[in-house]
Amino acid sequence: MRSATMTLVIETMWQWAVALDVVVWLAAGVVVGRYQARRPLEALTKPGPFTRLTKWELAGAPFRTWAKVDSWKDRLPDAGTWFGGLSKKRLPKGGEGGWQRFAAESLRAERTHWAMFAVLPFFVLWNPPAIFVANVVFAVAANVPCMIIARHNRARVMRLAQRTRRLA
């Protein structure tokens, strides 16, 4: 009798852990997204150590050849407008800040997705190891593609801006 009760408790514990995981991921997404959206554009002019584009990224189209980003990037949602930001589905017009604004918003998107990884250590507090690993896999699957798109877009806009300056 005691082992049946213990089995029932263990079986329902992982279900509560998964339910808590969903709530925490959603809450973290709202908090991080809202925080990033409220940051002024001036804070988005200089990338940090994780968001700095490499020469490899700026030189050509590594995300096009390596990740085939053009074939899938339009299928992912763009939450940039949820908290008053700018959609990255198209280049903004000159009155909206043009290419600089687009690059800044792409940096904002990348920082948002990097920040989501900061939530992961909390999941170890209530999850058994297998479910914690599942959360790590989820974090990678949910954020890395968006980071690739943001880096690809920013590198592409920066290359266009450099070419235009050379032609002017």
Structure description:
The protein contains six helices and no strands. 65% of the residues lie in helices and 0% in strands. Mean pLDDT is 81; it is low at 5-9. The termini are far apart. The longest helix is centred in the C-terminal third of the chain and has 39 residues, at 129-167. The protein is mainly α. The chain has helices at residues 2-38, 55-59, 62-66, 98-116, 120-123, 129-167. α1 runs antiparallel to α4 and α4 packs antiparallel against α6 (129-167).
Kindly name the structural category.
Answer: mainly alpha
Q: Would you report the number of β strands?
A: 0
Rg (CA only): 20 Å
Instruction: Write the element-wise H/E pattern from the N-terminal end onward.
Output: HHHHHH
Shape category: elongated
The major pleated sheet works out as: none
Number of helical elements: 6
Share of helix, binned: 55-70%
What distance separates the N and C termini? Answer: 82 Å
Which blocks of ≥5 consecutive residues have pLDDT under 50? Answer: 5-9
| Oligomer classification | single chain
